[in-house]
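It would be a great kindness if you could assist me with a short task in structural biology. The matter concerns a single protein, recorded as an amino acid sequence and a row of backbone structure tokens. The record follows directly beneath this note:
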Amino acid sequence: MFAKVLIANRGEIACRILRTARRMGLSTVAVYSEADADAHHLALADEAWPIGPAPARQSYLCIDKIIEVARQSGAEAIHPGYGFLSENAAFADACAEAGLIFIGPPPAAIRAMGSKSEAKTLMAKAGVPLVPGYHGLDQTDSILATAAEEIGFPVLIKASAGGGGKGMRVVDQADAFAEGLAAARREAANAFGDDRVLIEKYLIRPRHVESQVFADSHGHCVHLLERDCSIQRRHQKVVEEAPAPGMTPALREKMGAQAVAAARAIGYQGAGTVEFLLDSDGRFYFMEMNTRLQVEHPVTEMITGLDLVEWQFLVAAGAPLPLQQSQIVHNGHAIEVRIYAEDPDNDFLPATGMLRHLRFPEAGRHIRIDSGVVEGDRISVHYDPMIAKLAVWDESRAQAVHRLRRALASVEIAGLTTNSRFLAAIAGHPAFLAAATDTGFIPRHQQDLFPPPSPTACLDLCLASLAVLLERSAAAKQVAAGTNDPHSPWAKRDGWRLNEDAEESLRFRDGGQEHLIALTYRPDGYRLQLAQTTILASGRLGADGVLVAQLDGVIRRAGYARHGAEVTLFVDGRTLRLTVVDPLEGEAMESPTGGLLSPMPGTLTAILVEAGSHVSKGQPLAVMEAMKMEHTLRAPHDGVVTALLYKIGDLVEEGVELVAFSAAEEA
């Protein structure tokens, strides 16, 4: 076994690998970009080396820099994690040339699966079933369009060189093919440096089921059951579970055998994932093979009791697989969700900012949290906006779903928008509980998963008011403790009056609405009045942000966080964001220009119009890349482009005007 390993990745990926390496007694080396100088994974490593500026292409994707750090630090092996260079055959070659162990498959296996088109050809020869499609080398527009017509719409355009949902477009009809092809090529080029694509028949209601495989250098290869990853958005996995619901022993054995055959066909070693589409008739088709450990591997670990990273280290060191196929058994059911900094109500636009408040449920046998951030960290525009993976285990799927719902209700994040509410909506949906899932789950249940905003409840406003008042009182007592007369009534903020109860009011802004709460100080707490409702309130606010409130005698608990005027309340699994309104505050001035504004910070990757162009509402005007995903920006109304204010490659801030144009009536 090698003694020192370098982890060529960041975030929760690096943290996950570093913890296993430490448990195995290995010395560890971490790398970091300028943006990650204070990242959590550095604290878990024995050494941490800088490798360049924030952009991944100048740091985490720089093969020469990482190899040089390994040489200087004395590392004997490199673990690439998953993402970045994990499926880069040139990186595996460079490790070998430098005399380093690459903890992953051989370069030839990476190359074989790196091109989806070539992979399909290899799988066909190995007898693995394929979805009908075009995987040819001729990439001219006309050939691809003809292939799509012959396959029959709807079709799926996929980047030949990548995965993770990038460079994918579903096209429902012929007249939308050209736009979908152009978008897929741009995103593929940006993500993988290769704009080649393949075309496949798009199955209407398939499930996405994948098999975890492991192979060693002694000719042994096994599968570790399967995972269902059907619930997706933009072809990116949202929920993963193991084992896959509804799998019969015969189907599991058949799919596992095909996955092992796929791995053997390319001389595979290490951890890999063979992904299939499972149709409603029980037939399954090879999609792709990811030549790395997957983000969702925790659910496999939770049902098998194995540490797959430990297996990676052992296999890379030349040891045989620890178990044979007959020895691999599973117990119970596990489900994982990915908590992202993104806004589901705004087309899942990535969010950036500081994690001002971060609380997860307590980890243990039933709950696992994989995260690379801590409270006070920033989610930046440079990398994937994942905050954490939350995985749960229980003896049955129904119990696991119930545990997932409770765990999500315990997540508290303030400072930026997350998808926690969206994940909770999925976990609580009757179709999910019934395991009625497929890749169309999210669009099919759109109305249930994205309900219209409801008015802030009276009890929520009372909880927020009580928390603000208790926080204010605690702060006043702290200040009073430092004075010459800490017991003076003038040093307190408890509304004390000589002969009568004191009255005051609080105002909260909730989006475009304001709420006025009239309050009266009482010896035993407060009397709160909202419109025609009056509630007697008292309680305590802990230093950890836990509010224990008594509202008309009923005890309720909530989480509380505050930053400046922004108040965040976590109650019954919901997150309520309010702004405390200063009565002296003036009204904000707004001057809409009518142009196209940037909805997020990111890089401008394409401009689809010219100055003087006539545009229609909804027409694509520009394309931005943020958090490694492409976003098409469309005209908000009819008009004529008057100016292009940025050029391709510019890094732009949120809210800046990108394209100026006049309204149709002005043109």
About this structure: Residues 458-481 form the longest helix (24 residues). Residues 67 and 98 are 7 Å apart (CA to CA).
